[in-house]
Design brief:
InterPro entries: Thymidylate_synthase_ThyX, Thymidylate_synthase_ThyX_sf. By secondary structure, the protein is an alpha+beta fold. It has 8 helices and 5 strands.
Length: about 240
């Protein structure tokens, strides 16, 4: 499987990848002019050692490329990992790339994330961020309908502006932004991917980006089972 559906209309697609668990091992062993031809138990023990002791550069010789379609609120959270990857403590990883579709150039029909009536969450009781329990169905139904009406109004104004001759880069100001789906390519090293997963698989991460992190994990783990097993924080 190379594509994983997320939320109502989103997805993650594995576009390409380079290397394997064996690539990690051989990157580490090149210091001694040694190379393995087939992954062995000894090689897996080396991967465990590298991850445990924080010797992370060998994991940056493996690269993955994804196409992601997600609401803007997810994309902007995700983008922080590209900005911070070269400076994050313990990573030093600048091998990332991000290319996103732009409504300066395209006028395809806008698509929006609309939670179902049973997906609206309350504010948390003891925190300034995150969310709490699911709201009641009556309130949820009202919120879903209000969001649909708000989106329809924005799309109507956007289309009217385009028809009036306004350029696409300004017409997009009429579109409700945070729930609008955007598409991008993300290319990153295995270490950087696992850093993202460790942060966004946590129970207190926003649920929507947790869902995308789970998709990234499902698509990536079969390719690098030993390395991902050791780089991810162990959870109950």
């Amino acid at each position: 499987m190379t594509l994983y559906q997320v939320l109502d209309k989103g997805y993650v697609r594995l576009v390409n990848h380079m290397g394997s668990d064996l690539s990690v091992v051989n990157a580490a062993r090149v210091s001694y002019a040694k190379e393995s031809n087939e992954l062995s138990d000894k090689d897996i023990r080396l991967i465990k050692f590298l991850a445990r002791e924080g010797h992370t550069s060998p994991f940056r010789h493996v690269m993955l490329q994804y196409e992601i379609y997600a609401p803007l609120m997810v994309a902007r959270q995700w983008w922080k990992y590209v900005i911070g990857s070269a400076h994050a403590e313990g990573t030093g990883d600048s091998l990332e790339a991000w290319n996103e579709s732009s409504r300066r150039y395209i006028t395809e029909e806008p698509t929006f994330y609309i939670p179902n009536s049973d997906e609206w969450r309350s504010k948390p009781e003891n925190s300034k961020q995150g969310s709490g329990e699911v709201l009641g169905n009556e309130v949820g139904t009202q919120l879903t309908q209000e969001l649909i009406e708000y989106i329809e109004l924005g799309v109507q104004k956007y289309e009217s502006a385009i028809e009036a001759g306004l350029c696409a880069e300004q017409a997009r100001l009429f579109l409700p932004s945070y729930g609008m789906y955007v598409r991008w390519y993300w290319t990153a090293s295995l270490q950087s991917v696992c850093h993202f997963l460790n942060q966004r698989l946590e129970h207190d991460a926003q649920k929507e980006i947790q869902d995308y992190a789970k998709a990234i994990l499902e698509l990536s783990k079969p390719l690098y089972p030993a390395s991902i097993q050791e780089l991810l924080v162990k959870r109950d």
